[in-house]
Design a protein that fits this description.
Blueprint lengths: L5 H10 L14 E11 L2 E2 L2 E8 L5 E8 L5 H4 L5 E12 L4 E11 L5 E14 L4 E14 L10 E11 L1
Antiparallel strand pairs: 1-2, 1-3, 1-9, 3-4, 5-6, 6-7, 7-8, 8-9
């Protein structure tokens, strides 16, 4: 994915700032990888990759999602989960290149088990010439709420780190 629409949202924020941030080192968008720490028994050790765009209302348009570890089969089964999310309330500080906002990402299994990632810490470098983000990072908390009939997932939580890699 060569451009990430998330940057269009950043561009809107930057247009109102009237300052010139440092140009990003890499101009391409990328794949985001997440590692979720914490949890217990079969409800732990989740890792995944995803690609998304951000609509004008902050809703994520998720174009790709894949769990990276086989341990998730115990909790999420083998069917592809549904995903949704948002990135809203963006603010860009030109002094330290810090981008902040409210990030939410939800993964729901076919059985109804639901993992939600939330954060208010989104960082990266923005290239205002082509509206792309590089070296993106999101750090926050996650929580799993098992479906009412789930026998393999347990309610648990932890922290996560999500990083952007060049495409």
């Amino acid at each position: 994915m060569k451009e990430v629409a998330i940057l269009l949202l950043f561009a809107l924020v930057l247009n109102g700032c009237g300052s010139n941030p440092t140009t990003a080192q890499a101009a391409e968008g990328g794949v985001w990888g997440a590692k979720m720490l914490g949890g217990e028994s079969t409800s732990s050790g989740f890792s995944f990759q995803t690609e998304f765009t951000v609509g004008s209302n902050g809703a994520l348009g998720i174009t790709n999602f894949q769990f990276l570890n086989s341990g998730t089969d115990n909790c999420f089964g083998t069917s592809i989960p549904t995903t949704s999310g948002s990135l809203t309330n963006l603010d860009y500080n030109t002094a330290d290149q810090l981008i902040s906002g409210t990030f939410s990402f939800t993964i729901t299994s076919a059985a109804g088990d639901k993992v939600t990632l939330t954060s208010t810490a989104v960082t990266g470098l923005v290239n205002i010439n082509n509206n792309t983000l590089s070296d993106g990072s999101i750090i926050g908390n996650w929580a799993l709420v098992p479906a009412s009939n789930s026998s393999t997932c347990v309610a648990t939580n932890g922290t996560f780190t999500m990083t952007q890699t060049a495409s």
